[in-house]
Amino acid sequence: LPSTILHADLDAFFASVEQRDDPALRGRPVIVGGGVVLAASYEARAFGVRGAMGGRRARTLCPHAVVVPPRMKAYSAASRAVFAVFRDTSPLVEGVSIDEAFLDVRGLERIAGAPHEIAARLRARVRTEIGLPLTVGVARTKHLAKIASGLAKPDGLLVVADDPRSERDFLHPLAVERIWGVGPKSAAVLHAAGLNTIGELAAAGEDVLVALLGRHAGRHLHRLATNHDPRPVRAGRRRRSMGSQSALGRRARSEAEIDAVLMALVERVMRRMRRAGLGCRTVVLRLRFGDYARATRSSSLRRATRRTDTVLGLARGLLAACAPLIAERGLTLIGISLTSLTDDDGAQLELPFDGRPAVLDDALDQVRDRFGANAIRRAALVHRTIGPAMPTLPDRPDEPGR
Ligand SMILES: [Mg+2]
Fold first, then answer.
1. Residue 125 Cα to ligand 1 middle (Å)
2. How far is the CA of 149 from the centre of ligand 1 (A)?
3. 240 pairs with which residues across the strands?
4. What's the CA gap between 8 and 10, in Å, rounded?
5. How does DSSP assign 275-319, residue by residue?
6. Closest Cα partner for 350 from 301, 314, 402, 296?
7. pLDDT: is 35 or 45 the higher one?
8. What is the pTM of this model?
9. Which residue is catalytic, options 18, 100, 167, 267?
C-alpha cells in the first residue's frame, strides 16, 4: 500500500481564527479563553503557554499576550468551511475533531496527482480560501500520518515514504509521547521502565508492555510501535451509539451516591462523544435491579447537543422516573448510552457550543486530554446550580426529594 493517507490538522485553530478575523492580532501572542486557555497562538506558545493551562499562569508566562474570549460560532463556521474543502479533495474523509481529519487520496493519482501534491494543494486552498494555516502529514497508515503532522507543525507538510525501512527509521527514534493515545500517565509508566523511544517499545515486546499497561493498552501500543496499523479511513463514519455503564454491587445506595455515579457516567461518555466530534440527540438510561430485572428508558431532544449539563438533565429526569422501581428492587447497575449521533461539522447541530457551559465542557476536555481523566473532578456544585428544566421529557412524574 502506498502512502495515501493524509492527516490534516489546523494549527492553533481557535487562535488562528482570531488572528484571521482581527489583523491587529496577527504576529502577536494570542490566548483564547481567560479562565482556562482554550487555545494559544504559536507566538504565545513560544513563551510556554499551552492549551488547558490556567489563565493566570499563562499571563505570567506571557504578560503581553492578547487574551480574547472564545467565539464558538466563528470556529464552528470555519470548521464547516474547512471540512467542505476536505470533502472536495477526497470522497474518503473521516473527521477526528472540529479541526482535524483523515483523508485517503488513493485512486486520485490520475485526476489530482500524487498524494504529496494533493496535500500541498489542500494546504494552499485552506490558506487562501479560508485564511487558516493547515498542517498535513502523509503516510501509509493513520498512525504514521498523525505523527507526521504533529512533527510538521506549524504550517507544514511531511511525507513518510512507504517502504518499511523509511517508516522504521522515522518511527523508532521518536519519544513514546508521540504515539497517538499515550498520555502523560502512560508515558510516566513507560519512562519508569526505561522505555523512552518508540524503538525501545518495539524492542521490549508485547508481554512487557502488557505487564506495564494492561492487556488492551499494552497490545495496542505494541502494534503501533511495531508499525502495525491496519485501520482504514472511513468516510462519513457514524457510530450508532456510545455508552458507558457502572456496576454498583448489591449494597443499597443513597440517592446522592446514585446521582454521583450517573454524573460520572455522563461526564465520561460526553467527553468521548465530543472528542469524536459528535453530538447526540437521544439519551438512553439502562438499569439493572437487585432481582436482575432490567429497565431501559430514553428521552430525545429536538436538536443534537454536545452539552454535558443538557444530557445530565435528561438522564436525571429518566432516573427520577424510575425511583419507585429502584426503591422496590434495589439498583445494581446503571448505564448511559447516547444515540442519534450527529457529526458536529454538519449543519444539523444546533450551536451547542455557544454558551458558557459548553465552553466549560471543552476546557475540561482539554485539561483531561492533557493530564488524565481524573485531573479535574467537576465539582458536584457546578451541577447543583442547574435547574431541571426538561420540557421534552414524556410523562415525567413528580420527582420526590429533588
Ligand atoms: Mg489542530
1. 17
2. 10
3. none
4. 7
5. HTTEEEEEEEEEEEETTS-EEEEEEEEEEEE--HHHHHHHHHHHH
6. 301
7. 45
8. 0.65
9. 100
